[in-house]
Write a structure and sequence with these properties.
Blueprint lengths: L3 H9 L1 H7 L8 E4 L6 E7 L5 E12 L3 E11 L2 E3 L3 H4 L4 E10 L2 E8 L6 H19 L1
Helix pairs in contact: 1-4, 2-4
Length: 138
């Protein structure tokens, strides 16, 4: 129940990003830019207390309409890995968001490439994350 600018801003601004992404990993945040072609790191504390996460680039950004993230590797304690066999199994992978206004509401369509062993986990996490995003927007 919000326009797509409000939903977009809530989804991508640092403070609120940290809130809705808790469904995926407590302490999640990003470093980088959402601009097309920019490098962005999606990070959070690992079990050993060090930072870990995803190394990605913004493939496309059409403000308030569509954003495509290309995941290219992992970040472990500040070191980017794009060449290990583990990473090569699933990269590149895309995560796309489409924002469509329908009257006074906005629909967010999420498309995500994910390895089959993580499918069930994300199917459980995404509804919780999107519910938090919805609550933040309204």
């Amino acid at each position: 129940n919000a326009n797509k600018q409000k939903v977009w801003d809530t989804m991508l601004e640092d403070k609120t990003y940290r809130q809705w992404t808790t469904a995926f990993h407590e302490g999640s945040f990003y470093k980088g830019s959402w601009e097309t072609g920019s490098e962005i790191h999606f990070l959070g504390p690992a079990e050993d207390g060090k930072l870990g996460g995803m190394y990605s680039k913004i493939k496309e950004n059409r403000k308030h309409e569509y954003i495509s993230i290309e995941h290219l590797g992992m970040v472990k304690d500040g070191v980017i890995d794009t060449t290990s066999e583990e990473v090569k199994k699933w990269t590149p992978a895309f995560e796309n968001y489409t924002f469509t206004e329908k009257g006074s509401q906005t629909e967010v369509k999420v498309e995500m490439q994910v390895a089959s062993e993580y499918k069930a986990m994300f199917e459980e996490m995404w509804p919780r994350a999107l519910k938090t995003l919805k609550d933040l927007c309204e």
